[in-house]
# Entry
Amino acid sequence: MIGRLNHVAIAVPDMKAAAAMYRDVLGAQVSAPLDVPEHGVTTVFVTLPNTKIELLHPLGANSPIAGFLAKNSSGGIHHVCYEVTDIKAARDRLVEAGARVLGDIKTGAHGKPVLFLHPRDFCGTLVELEEA
Ligand code: CO
# Structure
């Protein structure tokens, strides 16, 4: 059911420093910061030949990644995103299998439908599915 790895998301305490590190030290192609208020994050995309890295920094008071950074002060891997061709079919299959789906299908940072799955059901990793 899952297809390509769309991105790995890394929560960062200092977006400027993180973007500069990926651009200047690792020599990657790095986007300008993009505020996504509906998800409570500022994102920077690092484009690699085979996938992307999504740098995440909290935006606003109720950011879903503020708690993660409070526990992981130097940042850390926040989620992985796999592509699916039909997100509603994927959700139905996962619910039937007993997996915990977090909330409803939403529009993600790339303007495509996304869904999050509970880390306890997936080896301790928060999983995002994106219809692509
Ligand atoms: Co993501």
About this structure: Strands lie at 5-11, 29-30, 34-36, 41-47, 52-58, 76-84, 101-107, 113-117, 127-131. Helices lie at 15-25, 66-71, 87-96. The mean pLDDT is 95. The chain has three helices and nine strands.
